[in-house]
Amino acid sequence: MTATTHRRLLTEIPGPASKALQQRRAATVAAGVSSVLPVYITAADGGLLTDADGNTLIDLGSGIAVTNVGHGVPAVVDRVREQASAFTHTCFMATPYEGYVEVCEALAELTPGSFDKRSALFSTGAEAVENTVKIARAATGRQAVVVFDHAYHGRTNLTMALTAKSMPYKHGFGPFAPEVYRVPGSYPFRDAPGLTGEQAAAAAIDRIEKQLGADAVAAVVIEPIQGEGGFIAPAPGFLPALSRWCSDNGVVFVADEVQTGFCRTGDWFACEDEGVMPDLVATAKGIAGGLPLAAVTGRAELLDAVHHGGLGGTYGGNPLACAAALGAIETMRTRELATAARGIGETVLPRLRALAAETGVIGDVRGRGAMLAAEFCTPGTTEPDAELTKRVAAACHAQGVVVLTCGTDGNVVRLLPPLTLPPDLLEEGLSVLEQAVRTEAAR
Ligand SMILES: Cc1ncc(COP(=O)(O)O)c(CNCCCC(=O)O)c1O
């Protein structure tokens, strides 16, 4: 079913059919599973979601940075349909198939670095990040893993240990995996004024060297732009300095590009912005147009240091997901979606900056490409305003615009539109957001 080409509100959001489904959910879905909008989707097309009451919503979340190519893309859907009619699963560890190999070939070509590469495929971002740590430990013989303030890497035991924020991700789920150490990163809006990326990196490196010693460290794991922690782009120079230190000290530099990857930030991968070539890169989300696929790609000598049979999983590189990925990657190439992402940023960032100047309640506007954010603060301060953030997001939802929030302090509205979102829908969604900020800031 194809949605219309504009936002259509037939009922309040959520409408009666969604409310009825919400009641059914309460009797059968674990309360620990949350949803931003209690709206049940029946169709999606391009950047529009159709709910059970026939409302169409503008999707500025892409299912948390997954449907970068948009919804219902023929190159994805047709390949999945064809693959499904051939076979849905054989388990690559039992009897392999070409699609897995093709995805690995594409990853070798597309990820930063011209060195000899290998990949291993999984199903979720957390699995990929977990496996970067396994690979780094196997390759170096070391155990310690260094992560950063505001980091998010997943919800498994090890990735919870890597993740910074306790509630809701870690609270009550310990103990967590050992040998994980956290250091400050680079948060320009909150760091000391004028602190350069190199200085922030030097401070982190000093902490690592003093508290651990470089020769104890297997890997440094970092998001090139921190996602759930608040869409925090580090100061220029931070990532290159960190990467240089890693290569000088035999430490594996792991880029967690689960949220930043696949054209989201205006490059195929966010590390490209400063020419950083990670030893290992974890990818997921945007890779396969909505099908569950994740990967570790990196230096062949690192991945091949793992003993035979040391990497795997039943569904890793599922054939439907691989077919979807090949369709999504084809779409990113033919529609030049990295360029499209930059265009979205060029449209949105000035509007958010003007809104910040007009209302005074947005302390920082930041991001790259189509990974954009507004951090809400008490005017004139860096004091987080999570309540206002919630109200702004709720006001957008009530108007049929899906926006997501994030941030260690819950005070960041993030924009993750599909990179194929038509300009008129972007404009409509942005106008709703602007009006929501004006109205809620005035309350
Ligand atoms: C950088 C980065 N690394 C790893 C992950 C984990 O990816 P999975 O596919 O959710 O396991 C993410 C997932 N981010 C969305 C989390 C949603 C939620 O669970 O509340 C990420 O952003």
From TrEMBL:
Matching Pfam families: Aminotran_3
CDD domains per UniProt: OAT_like
EC nos: 2.6.1.19, 2.6.1.22
A GO molecular function held by the record: identical protein binding
UniProt cofactor(s): pyridoxal 5'-phosphate
UniProt entry keywords in alphabetical sequence: Aminotransferase, Pyridoxal phosphate, Transferase
Signal peptide location: none
Record's catalysed reaction(s): 4-aminobutanoate + 2-oxoglutarate = succinate semialdehyde + L-glutamate; (S)-3-amino-2-methylpropanoate + 2-oxoglutarate = 2-methyl-3-oxopropanoate + L-glutamate
GO terms under biological process: gamma-aminobutyric acid metabolic process
Pathway of action: Amino-acid degradation; 4-aminobutanoate degradation
Keyword Hydrolase among record annotations: no
Family in the record: Belongs to the class-III pyridoxal-phosphate-dependent aminotransferase family.
Entry-linked NCBIfam families: GABAtrnsam, PRK06058.1
Name of protein: (S)-3-amino-2-methylpropionate transaminase
